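ok so dumb question maybe but i'm new to this and my supervisor (M.) told me to 'just get the structure for Lysosomal cobalamin transport escort protein LMBD1' and walked off. so i did the thing. is this what she meant?? sequence i used:
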Amino acid sequence: AILAFCWIYVRKYQSQRESEVVSTITAIFSLAIALITSALLPVDIFLVSYMKNQNGTFKDWANANVSRQIEDTVLYGYYTLYSVILFCVFFWIPFVYFYYEEKDDDDTSKCTQIKTAFKYTLGFAVICALLLLVGAFVPLNVPNNKNSTEWEKVKFLFEELGSSHGLAALSFSISSLTLIGMLAAITYTAYGMSALPLNLIKGTRSAAYERLENTEDIEEVEQHIQTIKSKSKDGRPLTARDKRALKQFEERLRTLRKRERHLEYIENSWWTKFCGALRPLKIIWGIFFILVALLFIISLFLSNLDKALHSAGIDSGFIIFGANLSNPLNMLLPVLQTVFPLDYILITIIIMYFIFTSMAGIRNIGIWFFWVRLYKIRRGRTRPQALLFLCMILLLIVLHTSYMIYSLAPQYVMYGSQNYLIESNITYDDHKNNSAFPVPKRCDADAPEDQCTVTRTYLFLHKFWFFSAAYYFGNWAFLVVFLIGLIVSCCKGKKSVIEGVDEDDSDISDDEPSVYSV
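this is what came out, is it supposed to look like this??
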């Protein structure tokens, strides 16, 4: 199902004239990896929760060996998917991207393309190797003996690397990519969370009304062209200013006639009539999405405020165990835990919503390098390089998703629905004595290590405090960008049914009218 969705999504947006097999497969595979990785968090939480009963005792089959096997299985799943993400981000996607950049030169042979692409990709591979080395050999603990020799210090580094099974190295590399993913989430996801629901609610403009406006614009431009050409009827040459104006009007007329063809096709399309019938459903989905966004944003704000007021500060990465200020999501999850599997459904909905709003944000904003727009994401007209950029950005955003969910419900992400037993003293009035009675309590940071199993997600998230501190400030930036995007989306009018058909869309062909239908 995931591969089918990825294939449909990529084929929907890729250019029909520039589609390539290798870039298409790479985009589909990368998008599938992003979606599969996003599913790890609810699976991880479910497995640690499933090992225990609600009364705080372990299930009969969940002995120490079985628990360790389950933890190792999840850990190896993270190793595998995160390693694949590193491979895609640092080698495969850059290689395919540079290969097609070189392909734009008609006189370049395939051998030269491969050599050039490999040369540029080598730089990304070196960066990946450096991140792994830094994460592997910068110890989180220091040797106790300060008078140890250099060889003993090196030996200590390798022993620590072996004892962690490379977890620190991979965690540092993934955390570095997650930091980039945080910037992408601030840019695209925060805006997409407001743009996607409001666009569904507002809908698009009428094709018939747009066609009428377009016809009026054509008549006006044609009148301007006739006025300029009339100046040369008596044999006088046009001035340089008139020539420039004539050229601009002629280009404008070509664009308007192109719009006229597409508008005529859309107006008579059965797909347009079908989408019109689904208009009430889109409004309902838009309202649902905006409610999920408000739940997410309010919870994130209260969670960050809690960290600002009650955490140990920047030196600890603003980490808190439990919640001093309750937020809607943190209150809702314990209630849903009583009815299996409602809590997992909610977490899955939030993660999927996070991904789809990221896609919407990238489509609306496009791909930029600072103030320079590199590519547009348009249905049926997206270049292979733009699709590769899109999939790489989604891979990075998915990495940041786990920390965003942890920010909203830290205790739930750490322990799921696990309980553990504590001794409670009960006084009996008849006998005037105390009796110790075990009662279940929700797992938290004070729980014994042998009573509560921590999710593998948490181990990857908090190996390095400085990354946690950066994520904390990133959450504040996310909130600010969401509010700005909400204001912008409210002020913007309805989208055109052929939005993007303008002068700078050089990849539009006249024989592709169907790709603009909505």
